[in-house]
């Protein structure tokens, strides 16, 4: 019975948290001024390019790390 009370308490807490976030979404502006400014000046492409480079770098790092871990696992097993 204690676990049921715990689950209900967590559900009520989560509901209260979600209801508190709802007014914040209602106050946001319809347009994002920073993005409009960057788009008008042509700098949005620089931002997109930098983000793509960062994501590609992270992906390459993860692939290299996975290969190294695979080699280490083979050494430990064999």
Automatic annotation (TrEMBL):
Keyword Membrane part of the UniProt annotation: yes
For whether the record's keyword set contains Transmembrane helix, the answer is yes
UniProt-listed Pfam families:
CcmD_alt
Leader sequence segment: 1-26
Which organism's genome codes for this protein?
Adhaeribacter soli
| Keywords attached to this entry | Membrane, Signal, Transmembrane, Transmembrane helix
Segments spanning the bilayer are 42-65
Query: Know the name of this protein?
Result: CcmD family protein
Where on the tree of life does the source sit, at the highest rank?
Bacteria
């Amino acid at each position: 019975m204690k676990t049921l009370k715990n689950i209900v308490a967590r559900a009520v807490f989560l509901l209260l948290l979600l209801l508190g976030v709802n007014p914040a979404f209602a106050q946001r502006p319809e347009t994002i001024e920073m993005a409009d400014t960057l788009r008008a000046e042509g700098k949005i492409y620089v931002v997109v390019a930098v983000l793509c480079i960062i994501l590609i770098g992270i992906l390459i790092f993860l692939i290299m790390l996975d290969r190294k871990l695979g080699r280490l696992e083979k050494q430990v097993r064999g």
